[in-house]
Amino acid sequence: MPANYPCPQLRPISEPHPQLAITAGQSERCTHLPGTRQNVINTITSWLNSVDGPPSNILWLTDIGGSGKSTIAHYIATNVAQSKQLLGSFFFQRDLKYYSSTIPVINDLSRQLAKSNGCIAAELARAAPAGDASCLEAFHTYITSPLRQNPPVRPSLIVIDALDESGPPTERAQFISALVNEAPLLPPTVKILLTSKPSQDIQEALDGLASPFIGEETEFGCHRLTFDVYGQTNRRDILLFISHSFQLVAQRKIASGIPLPDGWPSRIQRHSLTTHANGLFLWASIAAAHVDNAECPHTVLEELLALQHQSTPDAAMNALYNYVLLAAKSYSCFDLFTYQAVLKLVLSSENPLTISQVNDRIQRDVRPILACLKPVMRCSPGIRFVHHSFADYIQDSQRCDPMFLVAATSHVKPPIFGRSALSMSPNLVIRNNMHDNYVSTLLHEYCPLEDPLPYLGSDIKAGSISPYAITRGGFGDIWSALHVDGRQIAIKTLRPYGDLATFDRRTLEKRAIRELSVWRKLNHPNVLKLLGVCDLGGEIGMVSEWMVHGNIMQYTTEHKDANKLKLITNATTGLAYLHERGIIHGDLKGGNIVIAADGTARLVDFGLAKMTESALKFSATSTVKGTHRWMAPELMNPDEKSKAFVTFATDIYSMGMTILEIYSGRHPFVELMNDAQVIMAVNRGDIPQRPLFHVAPQLTDQIWELIKECWMMDGNARPSAAILLTRIMGSRPSYTRRETA
């Protein structure tokens, strides 16, 4: 894909994309195109107005994400409202706090019922306050009872859209249970339209829906409706949508002075786009938006059509999202730092933020990045994802390119050492001296006086700390700041993950000081240097140089011609240095190798790795940590259980996986879909497939045989770090290996 395209311009905030419109629930959705989805709309309309049909008054529209369920829900709600048959509606949306859980649904629907009918309003006014009433009691009091007392004369509808977006199953269980129990008690003229992706908890609840009429049965306990995304009717509808969408794109481009041939795209191109869509209106909508965002729509359309056909709708969306992100990166105004900063902030916010709010939070202009990401991001009135599937994609390491991966985040950031969590505020407190602060107390208690740690509180420029964690390592969060001499520096604070989260505070404090003590003793060009410590909001901050090139996977993705053998030699040299000093890294992978400004690879995030008994007298009972795709079989063997410790040999196994990752640019076991498959494969003694030449052209036969030795099932048969380094240094790069299947 060509690089350094001129940056696209961001449309005025008041101007949404022509394929999108603000609808109920304040969400930007694809508008329904007349003439499409007619079978589904007719089925829903007939069910709503039927008085002699099956007894169930619930219709569940369920299908895969991106198939257009919410578009239909909004269309039905709008039409029914115009005919005065809408009792109420609720559209779940995970990025709006109010609409992201089932807590407000009953109250919200009851208010809508009151507005629609004065008698119901009077009934609700007489009802006792909900107080500590259960969800079932509240549903009966505020919805079922008023409707039974004042049943609608005409068939009327309640719409509940995207029920699967209402939080985890445990949080929505009470509401779904109340809905299922109360639905049969509603008047026959009250119907409920539900939409969601297929979800086991929702299906099981609806399967148990009992008919209030003796002798009556229904297959699912409710009407179940799908789009049949692979059917010819759906294909025809998507073709119509693509034709309409690209016609609007062509009109806009021609109006802006960009010439396009008559009938563009051609009939063949439109049919090819339909095939690429794999039954998803979402694919078609984002593809049209991407072409609309391009300066050269004809070229971009050809690139879209050149994408490999995918076997499933999910795979089609993954390929499209990857292409859109690569295209965004090709713009001259795109930079990964701002990309990460913006998306992490959007993901962590309970409600959408405006452009000015995001600018203030990260202290830079985000409009160029948003312009690059226009096909998948919207900024009116707040910055949001066009579809939640893109948010899922960029947080999924199994699907997303490592360069664009955004660490999963949450709205609540629990503290470890401090009395309150580090907040999103730009005014994080750095205490300038080592007296009368929490960290100084910890250091005085646990750090040897004869080997004090440099305290850098007064050396960090006031107000320069990033307002949020820039990235997350295996054991902690990384913050950006400026040294008073102008250097950019990184501050690492610990965050408990997995088993660490169960440790008490004193244990965590001791382990933090242990990491500092270990790190302080290290001085090697291939190991990131600890500059000192600071007190960051009442937490220990470990200060190091900022690595401008990011990790080795980001670096080699951006620098296709990078000498990977040299970088691997750097990393292995660092590992040999650690092992020589009795230090087990414990979490080796590409994400934990960073690239310095001079292009040198350095190991990071060996924090909390235990010291062997023979080294600095620390315990050798290293606990299992790391990522399954890099972990040695002895760490995943169920027979080992509590005996599974990280060792020098497990580091070597992980290093072999890391070398493969660097050469291929892909996670180890890329051919396996999930960690469960990886665990079974590793325990069987399987190793990753050798990547084809075009994927890993720098991977020689000599190196491949060497890393296979790193993967020996018997840890004692693996080479030591020193031997591994010697053999890597003795190898020579070669680009003559032939392609093999």
TrEMBL record:
GO terms for molecular function: ATP binding; protein serine/threonine kinase activity. It comes from the Eukaryota. Pfam families: NPHP3_N, Pkinase. Residues 464-735 form the Protein kinase domain. The keyword Transferase applies. InterPro entries: Kinase-like_dom_sf (IPR011009), NPHP3-like_N (IPR056884), P-loop_NTPase (IPR027417), Prot_kinase_dom (IPR000719), Ser/Thr_kinase_AS (IPR008271), Ser/Thr_Kinases-Pseudokinases (IPR051681). The keyword Protein transport does not apply. Keywords: Kinase, Repeat, Transferase. This is Mitogen-activated protein kinase kinase kinase 1.
